[in-house]
Amino acid sequence: MSDPIVILTEEPLGADDRLNIERLVDGADTRLVVLVPANTERHLLVDFLENLSLLDIAKAFRELTSHAPDPATERAQAAETLAVSLAALAGLGAGVTGEVVDGGAVQGLVSKVKETGASQAVVITRPHAVADTFHTDWANKAQDQLGLPVLHLYAGSGFIGDS
User: Fold this and answer.
1) Residue 7: which of 81, 69, 103 has the closest Cα?
2) Which residue ranges in the chain fall short of pLDDT 50?
3) Cα Rg for the chain, rounded, in angstroms?
4) 5-36: b or e for each residue (b if 16 or more CB lie within 10 Å)?
5) Which residue in 68, 98, 120, 141 has the fewest CB atoms around it within 10 Å?
């Protein structure tokens, strides 16, 4: 059996994501471990600038005036994201497991990679203009802490982030 692959995602995985992971597994007997953060730790100002840079002005101002999300609601959404993601990856490799992680998303990924002895990690996100541009995205942060390559994919596409 191959070393496990740990996957951190902020988005529910779908058919395109399954295809990307299937290519990565390449028929090997690899166990997949999916992590979904209970709290994505986004910052109001960064989100505002990001939405503006993506020309989503209405969303930028809507989120600027919204209240902090309820932790129980965030955890429930993360659990739903995990369930959808596990279903999307069902049948790949030597099986798929997952969990919702509390605390920092990157720290959860780093801990799970070390715990499982994984030699590969994957981060799947939607594009984040500011974090991606300044290399402060989850994949770059995890790569710095782990000292091993971390594949950064954009959810629902075949596009690879710049890690």
Assistant:
1) 81
2) 163
3) 16
4) bbbbbbbbbeebbbebbeebbeeeebbbbbbb
5) 68
pLDDT in tens, 11-46: 999 999 999 999 999 989 999 999 999 976 655 555
Residue appearing with tokens 């993360």: 78
Chain-centre distance for alpha carbon 32: 14
Distance in Å from the first CA to the final CA of the chain:
28
CB 139 within 8 A of CB 8: no
